[in-house]
Amino acid sequence: MNSGRVSTPHVLLGLLATGDKHGYELKRAHDERLPQARPLAFGQVYATLSRMQRDGLVTVAGQERDGGPDRTTYALTGEGRAALDRWLNDVEPPYPYVTSTLLAKMAVALLVADVDRVRACLAAQRQAHTARLRELTVLKHAPSATLDDVVAADFAIAHLDADLKWLATTLSRVADWHREVRHEPAPGP
Amino acid sequence: MSQLQARDLTRSYGRTPALRGVTLDVDEGEIVAVTGPSGCGKSTLLHCLAGILRPDAGEVIWRGERLDTQPEAARSRLRRTEFGVLFQFGQLVAELTAAENVALPLLLAGTGRRAARETALSWLERFGVAELADVRPGEMSGGQQQRCATARSLVTGPRVLFADEPTGALDTLTGEQVLTTLVRLAREQRTSVVLVTHEPRIAAYADREVTLRDGAVEHSGLELNVPSTGGAR
Q1: Is B171 an 8 Å CB contact of chain A?
Q2: Residue A35: what pLDDT?
Q3: What Pfam families would the database entry show (chain B) (predicted)?
Q4: What DSSP assignment string belongs to A111-169?
Q5: Fold classification of A1-91 (topology level)
C-alpha cells in the first residue's frame, strides 16, 4: 500500500460508501473520480470485489438480470466501513512517489467525509510531510553527506515541498468551499 | 529562555483584521519560522515583534519589559542595537559600496570608521562576497545583493534577526546558500531568528514552525531535533 500505487480496494470501498453499486457502476465512478488514474479494467473490478467479499468487506445486496448479463449489486459491510475509516485515518508515509495515493485519499475523503474530517486528514498529512522534510534537510546538511546524498535529498525535498504547497492550497480551498456552502441559501425546488 | 514574547496581539488595517489574538514566544538563540498563506498576518506579526508597528491590543515583551508601549525613539534605538531586519529585497543603499553598506549599522551604533570597515569586510567574507567590498549594489546580481544585505543584518551581532522572506527573490540554490550561511552564523552568535516564509523547504531550517491562518495561530510546534552540538549548516 506504500508503493505509491492507488489502492483500488479502498477506492472501491469509498465509492460503495456513497451507495450500493454493481461492477460497471463502480468502474465508471472510479474513472470519473480519478480521471488522472489508469482506467480500471472490468476484470480487476470483479476480482477485487470477490476478494473483498471473501474478506467480509462487501456483501451482495441484490442480483438482477433484465435480458442482459448478470448484474450483482454490492454493498459495504460494517467491516468494510471500518477498513475504509482505517485507511483514511492512516497517514501515508511521505515518500516522493506516494503523491497519487495521497491524491486518491483526499478525493475519497472529499467524497465520503465531512469538512472537518477532510481538514484533519490534510493537517495530519501536512505534519507528516513537514517532519520528513525537516529530517531530509538535516541529513542534507550533515558533514558526512556526499553529493549523491545531497542530490537525492534535493529530489525528495522538492517533491515534499510541492506536496506541502498542494496540501496548504487544498486546506484553503476546502475552507473557502465550506464557507461558501454554508452561506449559500438552500437550493430551491 | 523566552526573550521575546507576543501576547494576544491584535492589529487591523482600517476594518481589515491582520492579527486576531496571536501569542508567540521566541527563546534566546531559537530560530522560529512563521508560515502561512499570503495575507495570513505573517509580516504584520514580524513588524509588531520588531517594534516597527504597534499592535491595537495585546503586548510585545522584550526581555521582561513592554516593547510596544515604548516611544518610537526607544523602539528605534532597540532596532539599531538589539535587532536586525532583513527583507526580501536587500534595501542596500544604492550610493554606498558593499563594505560601506555593511559598515553602516556599526557606524550608527558609534563604532569608529576603521573598525567598522574591518568588521564589515570580515562579514562580507563569511558570506563569500569579499571581492565585492568596493562594488555598488547596481553592479551586483540579486544573490550578491542579498548576501550583502544578510551580512549587514547580522553585523552588529543582534539578539534577534527579523527576516521577511529573505530568500523569496532568489533561485533555489542561491537561496539555500544564503539561508544556510544565515542560520549557521545566527547559531554561532546565539541570535534568535524570526523567519517569515511561505516556502516549506525554507521553514524546514528553523527549530520550530508556527503557521498562521486568517490572523491566528493555526499550528505551533513541530520541534526539529537538531543535534545540540551541530545545528544546520
Answers
A1: no
A2: 65
A3: ABC_tran (PF00005)
A4: HHS-HHHHHHHHHHHHHHHHHHHHHHHHHHTSTT--HHHHHHHHHHHHHHHHHHHHHHH
A5: Arc Repressor Mutant, subunit A (1.10.10)
The residue-averaged pLDDT of B188-205 equals: 94
Residue B168 pLDDT exceeds 60 = yes
Q: How far is B164 from chain A (nearest CA, A)?
A: 19
How much is the pLDDT for A67?
A: 66
- Looking at residue A189, its pLDDT comes to 41
Q: What is the pLDDT of residue B122?
A: 97
Count of beta carbons in the 10 Å neighbourhood of residue B133: 17
Q: Percent of chain B at pLDDT above 90?
A: 79
Whether residues A165 and B219 touch (CB distance < 8 A) is answered with no
pLDDT given for residue B71 in this prediction: 94
What is the number of residues in chain A? 189
Cβ-based contacts of A123 with chain B (< 8 Å):
219
Are B68 and B54 contacting, i.e. CB atoms less than 8 angstroms apart?
yes
Radius of gyration, alpha carbons of chain A: 20
Is pLDDT larger for residue B123 or for residue A34?
B123
Domain boundaries, chain A: 1-91, 114-189
Residue A186 CB coordination number (10 Å): 5
Confidence of residue A112 (pLDDT cuts 50, 70, 90): confident
The answer to whether B201 contacts A161, with C-beta atoms less than 8 Å apart, is yes
Q: B 210-229 residues with CB below 8 A of A?
A: 219, 222, 224, 226
> How far is the alpha carbon of B223 from chain A, nearest alpha carbon, in Å?
9
Q: Which residue(s) pair with B66 in the sheet?
A: B61
**Confidence band, pLDDT 50/70/90 cuts, at residue A111:** confident
Question: Cα(A137)–Cα(B200) distance, rounded to whole angstroms?
Answer: 11
What SS3 state is found at B121? helix
